[in-house]
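User: Hey, my collaborator sent me this sequence without any context and asked if I could get a structure. I don't really work with proteins. Can you help?
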Amino acid sequence: MKKLHFILGRTNDLKDIQDSLASVYQIDSNRQLSAALQILRRTRPEFVFVDIEILQQAAAESSYKAVFQTISLVCPNISVIVMACPELLSEAVKIVHEGAESYLTYPLVPDELRLVINSIVEQTRAESELDYLREQVWQEDEFELLHTKSPAMKAVFEKIRAVAATRSTVLLTGETGSGKGFTARLIHRLSLRKNERFIEVHCGAIPDTLIESEMFGHEKGAFTGAIKRKLGKFEIAGKGTIFLDEIGTITPPAQIKLLQVIQDGLFHRVGGEEDIRSDVRIIAATNIDLKQLCQDKLFRSDLYYRLNVFPVELPPLKERKEDIPQLAELFLAKLNTFHAKDIKEVHPRVLEAFLAYSWPGNIRELENILERAYILEKTSILRPQNFPVELFTCPPKPMSDTINPSLTLSEFRKQELGRVEYRYLDLLLTKCNGKINATAAAAGITTRQLHKLMKKHSLVKESYKNKETPRG
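Assistant: No problem. I've predicted the 3D structure and written it out in structure-token form, which is a compact way to encode the shape of the chain:
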């Protein structure tokens, strides 16, 4: 039974509502907002109906948004509906724009109230389903990364296929941003544990004093601030997979406990004596040399050898540049899934710059600069002006290194024609300072033809005003 709470000065307005809806809804009421907040905190209704005059009084010293924030702090996820007389309808609409879900006009009619509640419920359900579908689409599309053109990555995926179905511990190594998290999730998805939990632990982000508690849990009173028992990540993971990222940062006591889990399948919570059995599969990752840490006496050698049962080294993006066009397409599809824009492609000049760039931040850097450009872009193609300048300071790669052998001859000719057209128009527009008539005359085409070509290549005349030197 849904809980409804009304905040209004005139209780007689509720009589018909209560008589009509008491069998369907649990209805409470109050005359003051301050007193109602305490009731909302305790009863947690799904909907609160507030008289517009009470809202106006509460917002007199702040704003409607501030009032709604106060209500949501007391009762998260509650839907606020404004009740107003017809004369204040325009103000009610304004309040909806400020954060209320909907409004009703006096006199209150049970059928209208049902309609408002049902529409909010349906909208919430639709949004939840859309978020779920978006997440499912991304999870499925994410594994398109398996279709690699890089020999190094093909070797990595062969290793993953071989180890996924086993119980063996896996150690992932590689530079920051090279895809260790994705690889760990992939191993889990391909394993016999795919229907169990996948738990990530970012060891480097947890303070040294809390790393044991986070991983193995603690008992009430184990240390200052331990006001109740807490389950650790190993206990939560159950029979699933636990991914220990930045494993080289964990403390010596945590290393000892982790070694015990791997060797004996047992651990105990901080401050506890009870042995807890673990059947979790461990995948660890590091971007630093664990063997060197062992030599420096900063990491236990016996733990290193236990973790290094099946090592997988991920190549940096600069060593698998043949995958960049596909990665860019994948990330663009992801952005289109989660946002309202419909951006079709990445400009050829941007792809050329991608192939020449050294990518110190690896795949994560590629994804981040694509997202930044996506936010700034106002056309259907990601253009050079929305990317960092340093991306275009690298010398362009020789043509032979950028040829995609998977293209047909016709497709390759079309692609290269586009590149040549772009460079030619870019040079002429720069030379003519963006003047359309002069550029068209120099190119031997009409201004209409020039406009079509500029639109095709996302060239904007304002970008060429007062330029003295051509762009690379």
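In plain terms: The longest strand covers residues 2-7. You can pass these tokens on to your collaborator as they are.
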